[in-house]
Each structure stands twice: as C-alpha cells, then as structure tokens.
C-alpha cells in the first residue's frame, strides 16, 4: 500500500529523510500514515517532495503525526480557523523586522531555537509549507539535538547536562541575550499584534531541561538561544557566561552538521520540535515571504512554569 519513495535527506547527515510520490489518496489509509509516523520518529524530520500544495494536503500530512494544537499566543496570525483549524501564517513583511547580521541586512531572520520554549508545554512537531517564496534567502535550517549532543565538547556538555534553562516570550531582535552573531544589530523592529504586550506581561517564565532522554534511549541537547534568559538557579555572570558558551557552540556546530532547506514550490517539511532546533536565514527586506504552519500536539512533559500563570494568560492560551 505504501508506494511512496524514500531517500536520505543529505549525504553524511545522521538525521532526516525525503519522501516522494505521496498522494492525498494514499493518506486516507491508516497503514500509510502509521508508516510515515514511524519514519518520522526514527529520522527526526521529513521533506515531502513534489506533493500537492493545497490546504487539504497539508492537513492530511499533518494528520499522520497527531492532532493539531492551537498556537499558545493569541495574537499570532491564523489562517481561516473554520477552514484550517490550528494553522498559522508566518509572513515576512516588506521593510519590517530587519536586522543586520555579519554585514548583511535581512528581514525575518531567526536564530537557532525550538518552538514554544516560552511555554510550559511544547508541541510535538510543525509542518511547514511555502506559499510565497523569495528568490534569495528565506532558507530554513535544521539541527538535530541527538547529533548535537554527541558532537558537543564533553567538558561543556558535562557542565550543562543537568541544567534547566529559563525562557521568556521576547520576540524583538534587540532582546536576544545569548548566542548573538559577532556582527549584529536591529534596524527595524518586528510589528507586534494587538494585545501582544499585555499577554506577555501576564506570562511567567518557562523552564525546560538543557538535555533530555528520549524513550528510545538517545540523549537530546535542546537549548534555544532565542528567548533564553539564563540557567535556573545560576542567573549570575558565571552562569550567563556558561550559557553564552553553550549557545555559541550551537552556532558553531550549526555551520557543520545541519541541513538548510531552500524552498521549492512543491515541498512540505515536518520536524520534531522535541528533538530539533531550527533557524531562518532571512531574506531581502524589500521582498515578502509567506509560510503556512500546522502545529502538532504532543508534549514531552518536562517543561514547567516558574510561577503559576496569571488568569489573563491562561484564558488567552485557550483561544
């Protein structure tokens, strides 16, 4: 029944898979969906090539991996919730959210991170599709936390192994505290949705382990430089120096053992948010880029709030 094809994501990478020949009709069969989910557990991310670029196909692919989850931030732009529940749009607006990184001005640049680090509950995965592409840039990078743990310098890994990292929802680029590129400055802030500041003010900080162990036995190094505030119980100059060293090592290894996806018209990509980090290269500030992302439910149950969340934040998270 499973007539789709598979091949490695890229030579010399220990993670990732490409699937081709998948049709909407095949996805109606539970056995096919189960096969694809098993491949995802093993490989951590899948690039679906030459698939139908419709809302229906994106939802069908997403259904292989679990129920959809609403985004925890109310102000994030949604696609029609009646037609595509749980689907958000990620738009790079012309001339907005511009940073200069290593002498190059780009919009919608994002450092290495995992999604929802600012929340007590993560999501299992995200399925991403490019709706409006740019000619240059707009590349999404992926870095496997299992491979990252193995590649990390032992002296540094041992110091961070049992650490808990504190995160806060901060999206403006001048708030990046750890892992900044050597040449980095904000040019134009990102536009913020109505009510965003109020929700952020009501949210406590979230805490997640720097390293965790999968049910299959592998250890995952899972630190998001984006939105990190410090090491729990060690928010001191010494603790901050350690976390900065960890984040800069992630940046260094991110140039050596990662995968960077240049979007084509017929691609969809899923990555394991409990295992992978991802980043975005940014694009010409005069060009616009639009992505649709579904968010797959399924937490690892290791995150928590630093303090009890406020009533306003809890109400927003249910919307």
UniProtKB/TrEMBL annotation:
GO molecular function terms listed in the Swiss-Prot or TrEMBL record: dioxygenase activity
Domain TauD/TfdA-like as annotated: residue spans: 6-295
Family of the protein in this entry: Belongs to the TfdA dioxygenase family.
Span of the signal peptide: none
Keywords: Dioxygenase, Iron, Metal-binding, Oxidoreductase
InterPro entries: AtsK-like, TauD-like_sf, TauD/TfdA-like
Name of the protein in question: Taurine dioxygenase
Organism listed in the record: Novosphingobium panipatense
One Pfam assignment: TauD
